[in-house]
Amino acid sequence: MKIDDVKNGIVLDHITAGKVMEVYEALELDKLNCSIAILKNVRSTKMGRKDILKIDNDFDVDLDVLGYLDPNITVCIIKDGKIVEKKQMQLPETIVNVEKCKNPRCITSVEKNLDQIFYLANRSKRIYRCKYCDSKIERSK
């Protein structure tokens, strides 16, 4: 299989196997007008299996969304066919408008223009809580 190299863009590497479409949808990559390669279940010595996204376009990727979805992701910024920067994701301290509060009594259920803000309550268990009502959301590993 031949996948072209990215000349100027981003490679999202070390995505947990099976999560590439979740990342694709969360970043709204379908709205980009460029080549995007989705590689699923690629062999990896480090992870066993992994997914990879290659985006042949410069765009502002939301690192908080990536860190929330999968803190194992490595973001490689490519310029002129060379990696110029590598970023290792981690769980963000807060996420804004990534999840919606499930509590029907939360102010965000009534006030439609209010940002959905969650803070990291427990890093090891990947638990976030709503800033307004303290409802819990848990991210599976």
UniProtKB/TrEMBL annotation:
<dbReference type="InterPro" id="IPR020545">
    <property type="entry name" value="Asp_carbamoyltransf_reg_N"/>
</dbReference>
<dbReference type="InterPro" id="IPR020542">
    <property type="entry name" value="Asp_carbamoyltrfase_reg_C"/>
</dbReference>
<dbReference type="InterPro" id="IPR002801">
    <property type="entry name" value="Asp_carbamoylTrfase_reg"/>
</dbReference>
<keyword id="KW-0665">Pyrimidine biosynthesis</keyword>
<dbReference type="Pfam" id="PF01948">
    <property type="entry name" value="PyrI"/>
</dbReference>
<keyword id="KW-0862">Zinc</keyword>
<dbReference type="GO" id="GO:0016740">
    <property type="term" value="F:transferase activity"/>
</dbReference>
<dbReference type="Pfam" id="PF02748">
    <property type="entry name" value="PyrI_C"/>
</dbReference>
<feature type="domain" description="Aspartate carbamoyltransferase regulatory subunit N-terminal">
    <location>
        <begin position="1"/>
        <end position="89"/>
    </location>
</feature>
<dbReference type="InterPro" id="IPR036793">
    <property type="entry name" value="Asp_carbatrfase_reg_N_sf"/>
</dbReference>
<keyword id="KW-0479">Metal-binding</keyword>
<feature type="domain" description="Aspartate carbamoyltransferase regulatory subunit C-terminal">
    <location>
        <begin position="95"/>
        <end position="139"/>
    </location>
</feature>
<keyword id="KW-0808">Transferase</keyword>
<dbReference type="GO" id="GO:0046872">
    <property type="term" value="F:metal ion binding"/>
</dbReference>
<dbReference type="GO" id="GO:0009347">
    <property type="term" value="C:aspartate carbamoyltransferase complex"/>
</dbReference>
<dbReference type="InterPro" id="IPR036792">
    <property type="entry name" value="Asp_carbatrfase_reg_C_sf"/>
</dbReference>
<dbReference type="GO" id="GO:0006207">
    <property type="term" value="P:'de novo' pyrimidine nucleobase biosynthetic process"/>
</dbReference>
<protein>
    <submittedName>
        <fullName>Aspartate carbamoyltransferase regulatory subunit</fullName>
    </submittedName>
</protein>
<dbReference type="GO" id="GO:0006221">
    <property type="term" value="P:pyrimidine nucleotide biosynthetic process"/>
</dbReference>
